[in-house]
Predict the 3D structure of the following.
Amino acid sequence: MPRITISNQWLSQKTKDDQINELNSEVRCVLKPSPIHGIGVFAIRDIRKGERLYCTPNLIPKFYDIPFGSLSKLFPEVKELVLQRWASVVNGSVFQSPNDDAGLLFFMNHDSHNYNYDIISDTALRDIYNGEEITENYCFMENASKVYPSLCPILKTENQK
């Protein structure tokens, strides 16, 4: 696999240690097969109510330049994600955060009763435990009933009857 190069404007300007700390702090979720539907987003550590999940992708890509030998400083689950998706890091390549390269938000499943994610603030609505699926309520989206009629029926008001 060739070494990946990118524009310096997308490369983190933080020190190597700060890049490692940022990844260890921000990478909190992973994609896995879901019992709800297809692929879902799952917590890889406990997440407290109100904490950010980093499921909303950055509009401007952020790349890290951490040498392969320093990846051992990453939490094991974060290191595994980096190596699964960016194997060329072994050759000195830069890599993107696992939060951004997979578009986690695009795989978020719906749960109308036990949802635990606020898409607006990208935060946990309640404590979420390691291994738990992260879900949102699709019906909160404006005009959701037009896209998800079976999930989000149109609620009639007294004036519409």
Observations:
- Strands lie at 29-33, 39-43, 63-64, 95-96, 109-110, 117-118, 123-124, 133-136.
- Residues 8-160 form a domain with the Beta-clip-like fold (CATH 2.170.270).
- DSSP finds four helices and eight strands in the chain.
- Residues 16-26 form the longest helix (11 residues).
